[in-house]
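Exercise: predict the fold of this chain.
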Amino acid sequence: MKIAVHVSNSPVSTYSKIINWQRIQLVVILIKMKVLPVKRRELLQTLSSIAEQVRNESGCLKAVVFQNVEDDNELLFIEEWSTQKDSVAHLDSDLFTVLMGAGGLMRKPPEVIITAVGQSTEFEV
């Protein structure tokens, strides 16, 4: 079971009521960003600092920043959370507000995708 919730200009905490959280094992938050070329370095430094702080929050399993090798101005911030409670607390935090506030460095507002994973299986390819 995989449930994706797109967040757009709405209070994030309202989405915690949509999902059957009792069956969730992992919450993944993807934040897609298109940066202004002249602001790329500044945004990467900001995101690196934010990722370090997010990793110290309760329940955070991962917080990383990726840059598209084909488009230097396309960034992806990925967070993984062990519980719904911790992910919602983060989404309602000042730190997440700062992350979203970095929109002034972007070509367009960031796209936030929240995915709740109820069961996953690892396999080798």
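Check your answer against the key: Confidence is low (pLDDT under 50) at residues 6-16.
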